[in-house]
Amino acid sequence: MRGLFAVLGLLLLTTLAACPGAGGSSRDAGPDAGALPDLQPAPDLGCYSNPQTHVEIINACTSSQSLDKTPRLPLARPDGTLPPLP
Q1: Are 62 and 51 in contact (CB under 8 A)?
Q2: How big is the CA angle at 38 (ends 9 and 12), to the nearest 5 degrees?
Q3: In whole angstroms, what is the distance from residue 50 CA to residue 56 CA?
């Protein structure tokens, strides 16, 4: 459990350090320093016939059968919660 919190904390710190305007250098500050970047449309993550990147490889065209990965938890209550740990 402590390892999970350590990873999440490290991820948060890395994200904050990479954000412009989060106390970092203002050398790139210009007239549009506070403006939001242009939003790009999300890439089409369909089927890739010649995958080259990780995202393309995991979304490659195959003839494999699709699987339902919805777990069935036998101790789940009707509202979806689980009983407390002993």
Answers
A1: no
A2: 0
A3: 8
Predicted confidence (pLDDT) per residue in 13-52, tens digit: 676 555 555 444 444 445 555 555 666 666 665 688 889 9
Query: 19 with 34: CB under 8 angstroms?
Result: no
CB 60 within 8 A of CB 48: yes
Tokens of 76: 């789940």
Q: Which of 47, 68, 66 is nearest to 58 (CA)?
A: 47
What is the token pair recorded at 18?
A: 């990479």
- Residue indicated by tokens 């990147």: 53
Question: Distance between CA 33 and CA 70 in Å, rounded?
Answer: 44
